[in-house]
Amino acid sequence: MNTSRGFHIICEDLFKIYKVADLEVVALRGLDLIVQHGEVVAIVGASGSGKSTLLNILAGYDNPSAGNIFVGTRNLLQMNPKDVEEYRRSEIGFIWQQTNRNLFPYLTALENVTLPMMLIDGTQANKEKKGSELLDMVGLSHRSKHTPDKLSGGERQRVAIAVALSNSPKLLLADEPTGELDDRTASEILDLFGVVNRELGTTILIVTHDPDIAYKVGRVVLIRDGKTSIEIQRRRRYSGITGVAETEQELEEFVLVDGNGRIQIPEELLNHVGIEERAKIKLSPNGITITTDD
Ligand code: ADP
Ligand code: MG
How far apart are CA 219 and CA 258, in angstroms? Predict the structure, then answer.
């Protein structure tokens, strides 16, 4: 049964609790997220807010402790280890922040790209052709015979994107792929995700610290304490991505309301109004007003 209701990703009330010795660390606490097919979504949040946990769960590297999660036609909670293996191989491309974690050091760029095709049917010649096309798309065909140590950080991430695309995944997950790069190179890499999205229609989730990201992608989701709390969209909705910040574009910010009617009110606002543990909530002519309880 297709449980994702036509969306590419549905996360509902997702919890992830890590047990470390006697302690429990709640990495995700009731996270909701819906992503359309072919959408580019940037995930932003402070260190420790649960971004990597979410990506690892989406990639099938980890299981949530509670909640629902659907990707395409799959219910990730009902997969056995063999399904997970097949899911990861056929549906997911993953890019790590550490440029050297993405590539085998003793293989050339082209060999790195063709290696994951080992388990796919087809001749070696066809695989190399596809590998060359992917390297061409990421702008590195002239480096195909180089090993990673001969490439710059930005070039290594370009190869990593080609590697992540070698199995023709529908979903590309990138965990701070520009974290180790200078601003200009980072911008070029973000641009490249835009090319991938436009040319292949791949759905892309990027975790990033780039403060200008909202001006570059159509949709930014802010994670705070293991929960999606705020979304920023351009007023004129644009689902792609551009490396150049279009700062004249107007942005709209939304507070997210979860399935139980809960919202996270930004701390700055609470402090500004002086709301601490309790507040009054009232219907007013143009919406709902939340005030201090005195
Ligand atoms: P982010 O990627 O946003 O920095 P993470 O998803 O890595 O955040 O981590 C969220 C929280 O979960 C943090 O408090 C982190 O210390 C904790 N955490 C992450 N992975 C583990 C793990 N394997 N074991 C225990 N705690 C973990
Ligand atoms: Mg992380």
Answer: 18
